[in-house]
Amino acid sequence: MSGVDKALLKKEAKLDRMLADSGGGVLAFSGGVDSSYLLSRAVKALGERLIAVTAVTPFLPDGEEDSALRTAIALDARHEIVRPDVLSSQRVVKNPSDRCYHCKREIFTTIKAVAVEAGLSTIFDGTNASDASERRPGLAALDELGVVSPLAECGITKDEVRALAHAAGLPNWADPPQTCLATRFPYGTPLTKEGLRRIGRAEAALHSLGLGNLRLRSHGDIGRLELPLENLSEAVGALREDIVEIAHSAGFKYITLDIEGYRFGSMDEPLKDAEGSVDS
Fold it and tell me: Residue 26's beta-bridge partner residues?
């Protein structure tokens, strides 16, 4: 494969063997780069013995369901959509710091039911080797439910997934990472369909301005916009009025621009500060 070093090709070969040896399974398919690359390898290794399952919840960013469907069709994968009612769980709605654990339990319990019905014993997900270094309470739920993470087990990192996806010609190899809309709200802020929908629509409108990877964090009446640093000057210049209109339409009285820029997991920063103060 052009542009990929031998060490990484060995990891990919290990991944292919692992998938083939599984005998078949269900793959939790979000449509992101990680699960798309994994699906591309799994389809080749398993064919009809694999089902890609996309869980559609109110936490899914706008357009992601359609994107997952298009990718599954392009990869010629068997594909199903499930709609777990995650907001029926008060442990999710209350949005505690371990919300991701409870949400993953709800989602993967539903996916497991698809596997049981299809007579498939293995559930795969796209967790990669880099994810273990981040705060991800949901990984504990996957472990409890016996979910297999082939990318992580083969030592394939986030950057390596992109390199392999690029070499394989996957059209979404360079897409920015998308996270569930619940991450736009501080822990302890109750989650509602209406609030999630407004954030999703507002972010879609902001993306249409060409602002790149962004997050609109909700702090009551205040919307805190995180943008790539290269977009900050444009946001307070030519696009300022458009951004203000989008924020007001989403129900925010005030809109602020976070001059630290976009960073993954900014809502976890208070937790890290609290842990630091305890340690000291």
Answer: 51, 123
Report, as ranges of residue numbers, the positions in the chain whose pLDDT lies below 70: 1-2, 272-280
> Is the separation of the CB atoms in 39 and 65 below 8 Å?
no
CATH number of 6-167: 3.40.50.620
Determine the Cα–Cα distance for residues 197 and 117; give it in Å rounded to an integer: 32
88-119 pLDDT, tens digit each = 999 999 999 999 999 999 999 999 999 999 99
| Start-end of H helices in the chain | 6-22, 33-46, 64-74, 90-93, 99-118, 138-144, 150-153, 158-167, 193-207, 232-235, 240-249, 269-279
User: Hey, which CATH number is domain 181-269, 3.30.479, 3.30.300, 1.25.40, 1.20.120?
Assistant: 3.30.300
CB 93 within 8 A of CB 191: yes
The confidence score (pLDDT) of residue 250 equals 95
Question: Within 10 A of 48 (CB to CB), how many other CB atoms are there?
Answer: 9
pLDDT number for residue 272: 66
What CA–CA distances, in Å, run from 177 to 31, 242, 265? 11, 24, 12
